[in-house]
Amino acid sequence: MDARLNMFASPFAAKFLKHINSAGKVVTDSGLPATTQELVKIRASQINGCGFCLDMHTKEAAAAGETGLRLNLVAAWREATVFTDAERAALELAEQGTRIADAAGGVSDEAWANAAKHYDEDQLAALVGLIAVINAYNRMNVMVQQPAGDYQPGMFG
Known about the structure:
Blueprint: H1 11-28, H2 34-48, H3 51-63, H4 68-73, H5 85-98, H6 109-118, H7 121-144
Helix pairs in contact: 1-7, 2-3, 2-5, 2-7, 5-6, 5-7
């Protein structure tokens, strides 16, 4: 299977991705816990059907010590007892922020208030940025049908 467009070989795509990667690095370096960041990336990628990002972020999370049990339960986080209240709030915000077109008002006040109970203003800004960035990556990879399965942890730096 080959991608419709090789985003790694295109000079334009490389320039574009450099800027998205820079935005992602700001989030990575924020005070938002790394575990929460990976869980959010995984959940948004599940919703968007992005195999490439699921491959990357489940492997990165596992390499960082995340358990298989938690990784396997991300899609069913509401029924799982293995996530903290803060992680659950971030996953809810990720779902609503990813499915923004499915809800009449976008992210609900309840979901926002719940996240605000667990994260300070900078962390909330990081969550919003993270959800936006992973959705951008998901959409690019789904559009070009970027194959999944070959990612190795740390492959992109």
